[in-house]
Amino acid sequence: MNLSQLTPGERGTIVSFTDLEMSVKLMEMGCLPGEIVEVERFAPLGDPIAIRVAGYQLCLRKNEASVIIIS
Amino acid sequence: MAADLKIALVGNPNTGKSTLFNLLTGLNQKIGNFPGITVDKKTGFCKIGDHKTAEVVDLPGTYSLYPKSKDESIVFQILADRENRSHPDLIVLVADATNLRRNLLLYTQVADLQIPVILALNMTDMAKKEGLAIDIDQLSKNLGVQVVAISARNNIGLKELKDAIANAPTIPTQEPGTDIQVLAPEAIAAAGQLIQTTNPYFALQVLHQHSELDIYTPEQHQQLNQIAAEHNFESSKIQTAETVARYRYLGTILNGIITDTGAQKKFIMSDRIDKVLTHKVWGFAIFLLILLFVFNAIFSWSAYPMDMIEEGFARLTDLGHEHLPEGMLTDLLLDGVVAGLGGIVIFIPQIAILFALISIMEDTGYMARVTFMMDRIMRKFGLSGKSVVPMIGSLACAVPSIMSARNIENWKDRIITIMVAPLVSCSARLPVYTLLISLIIPDEKVLGFISLQALTLMGMYLISIIAAVLVAFVMKFLIKAKEKSYFIMEMPVYQKPRWNNVLLTMYEKSKTFVFEAGKVIIAISIVLWVMASYGPSDRFEKIDQKYEKIELQQDSVAISTLERDRSAEKLENSYVGILGQTIEPAIRPLGFDWKIGIALITSFAAREAFVGTMATIYSVDSADEEATTIRNKLKGATDANTGLPLFTFATGFSLMLFYAFAMQCMSTVAIVYRETKSWKWPMIQLVYMTALAYFASLIAYQLLR
């Protein structure tokens, strides 16, 4: 299951990434394996999404969220 | 000022780094350029201790030393190059205390470069309020550097920070963090030997991003590439391993240092606001209202100061003509330089207001929400959510807006934003629109209260925005992407705007505009003045002789009229006039005569030249200054070929479209060159915009006439 499949209010734990290049950027922003992420809200048009991770709010497109594998 | 010490401020975006910078340096700061690159360099001076002065550089905010955008690449560039004039003796790393771990990732990278560093924990008061307690002393011990708790927003801890700077050691004291060697031992050793460094992290960074650094020779770049190939150096993989290792190290460092008793408190307020401001319906409605407010503010608040400036410059010119000795030099100074200067200064109110409002939107965190809401729509047209800011900014002026497109990480998104931003109607088109609308649209009300003229004006702005979006859509298919487009952005919590910052931004942006755009506009104004004042000498002599003869026959009353006739005739025969007549066949199908042609040519440098040029060219007829406004002069103008009024609805509308789409702004060309570092993009822009303007006007005129 990946992060883009969650709906607002749902949470999961980051397991791994499916895209190496994107993983560097996401990890620099605090999305580390083992971190808990919670989807806070979708943008009015459904994309991008805002998530709560590592004590702050991060927005990313569903595209990017789909490389984050969660459990 | 000679500085005893050079300090660089480094930190994540949204950590209050700039606030700290303003606090340290006050108004004692300036914006320049880093040599060879176009990133704004903010430097200032600050008293440290009793008699030491420090030069402080504010480096762009970044999450890591691996750059994602153009602005960010400067950070490593400065820190890596010991020969660079801005290379610091001491780094003050500003970290957000409410989000320590992510902020310290950058700290560990910077610390490994072996430059003395002080850690400034900002927003400590906010952290305390949220129930976050940080053991500063223990953190300082664990890291091996001085740690100072500050709150830049509330001016807390500044003295302690200055003391720490005064007592800072000249050699690095930081504990070694992660083991860098294991990441790529052979490649690091080989690169270290090549670039002569014993610092493994520096060698590693150079291997990753040497192609972005201009401190190496082409041979060195080639050798570095060879080393990377030989030792199977996989950049992304090694970066991932490094980041994981750094977070592991931070885990041990921060163990037992943070006690969190009121987790998540800070988000409650922001969440509530976001429920409304990013709501499906209300979100967009409020955004539109705010846009309307911005739009209105740019025009109505600036009206008074703009009138004052215009009047001031007119008075200055008059004064100059009265008191300076008559002659070519005086004319050049007053009609060339002063007039050019006036044309720039007049835009300061609009630019200051626009940037004040934008900086309030950014400061409060609202701009991040706009970006968030608009990304989906903008992406459809080849832009990104982050293009919204430059597009809105272009309503005032494309020059600073194109500069602000640097925040867009993705190259393709950024180029497209830069390419279409000048299509959005800027404030320089406003006087053109106002004049032409007053000529061709009757002063009537629709539904009893909406002015038809205002409605037309709004229509022109809408047309320009639609054109920008459509062109972006076309370019999306024409321009090849260098990398995947992505959108990862921190959403800051809502905060009150910092009024000091707002004022400083107004001041800085206006200053940058005056100096950057000013140079070009003045140069072009002078050239145009010369071309409009001189012509083939035999023609001018004939005109002079003709008028001298008439003057002798007439009494003194009519002399001022004669003078104007004479200058109008001279303009007709000047180099610019000849040029206008040369291009007339090309612009006839658009409904323009050679006089409008002259205005088009003078507007090439800056479109605000339109009104002034038209005023000069059409200054024939009546001698009574008061009654003859430019509007009336143009209204009376007739087509030389047909004898019918020149400014029909078709001609006026066609001319407005031309001004809406044409690239008549040297400053924009110059800034696009500066930002893209090549003539390719400004040239493409010039050609496509001119073509668009020509055909739009052609179609409009042929359909309407």
Automatic annotation (TrEMBL), chain A:
Record keyword ATP-binding present: no
Domain Ferrous iron transporter FeoA-like: 1-71
Keyword Iron found: yes
UniProt cross-references to Gene3D superfamilies, sorted A to Z: 2.30.30.90
Alphabetized GO MF terms: transition metal ion binding
Domain of life: Bacteria
InterPro entries from the UniProt entry: Fe-transptr_FeoA-like (IPR007167), FeoA (IPR052713), FeoA_core_dom (IPR038157), Transcriptional_repressor_C (IPR008988)
Keywords attached to this entry: Iron
Protein name according to UniProt: Iron transporter
Highest classification ranks of the organism: Bacteria, Pseudomonadati, Bacteroidota, Sphingobacteriia, Sphingobacteriales
UniProtKB/TrEMBL annotation, chain B:
PROSITE patterns: G_FEOB
InterPro entries in UniProt: Fe2_transport_prot-B, Fe2_transport_prot_B_C, FeoB_GTPase, G_FEOB_dom, Gate_dom, GTP-bd, P-loop_NTPase
An example Gene Ontology CC term for this record: plasma membrane
Binding site for Mg(2+) 1: 22
Protein location: Cell inner membrane; Cell membrane
Membrane topology: Multi-pass membrane protein
Residue stretches making up the FeoB-type G domain: 4-171
Residues spanning the membrane: 281-299, 332-361, 381-403, 461-479, 513-532, 646-673, 685-704
Residues that hold GTP according to the record: 11-18, 36-40, 58-61, 122-125
One of the Pfam families matching this protein, by short name: FeoB_C
Binding, Mg(2+) 2: 25-26
Keywords: Cell membrane, GTP-binding, Ion transport, Iron, Iron transport, Magnesium, Membrane, Metal-binding, Nucleotide-binding, Transmembrane, Transmembrane helix, Transport
Single GO molecular function: ferrous iron transmembrane transporter activity
UniProt main location, coarse: membrane
NCBIfam families: feoB
Family, as annotated: Belongs to the TRAFAC class TrmE-Era-EngA-EngB-Septin-like GTPase superfamily. FeoB GTPase (TC 9.A.8) family.
PANTHER family linked: FE(2+) TRANSPORTER FEOB, FERROUS IRON TRANSPORT PROTEIN B
Role played: Probable transporter of a GTP-driven Fe(2+) uptake system.
Protein name per the record: Ferrous iron transport protein B
Organism expressing this protein natively: Pedobacter antarcticus 4BY
